[in-house]
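Private note to self, pasted from the team thread so I don't lose it. Backbone tokens:
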């Protein structure tokens, strides 16, 4: 009878310890997923900012090139 009681306690202890680990792993996985989502959002924002900056620089370069062409054309015409 004593062995049966000890074995039942060991089985219960094992069940609780495995259950606790499972919850911790699920929590860790959830935390990792949330962190990954935040990093992805930040990367998307950084990419958007870089695209806007590149577009602004391209626009400025195009305007400058157009002004230079106008100057060349008006200088050649005189």
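Design output:
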């Amino acid at each position: 009878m004593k062995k049966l009681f000890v074995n039942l306690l060991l089985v219960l202890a094992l069940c609780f310890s495995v259950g606790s680990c499972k919850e911790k792993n699920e929590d860790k996985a959830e935390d990792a997923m949330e962190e990954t989502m935040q990093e992805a959002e930040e990367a998307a924002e950084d990419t958007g900012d870089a695209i806007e900056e590149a577009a602004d620089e391209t626009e400025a370069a195009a305007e400058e090139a157009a002004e230079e062409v106008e100057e060349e054309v008006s200088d050649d015409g005189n």
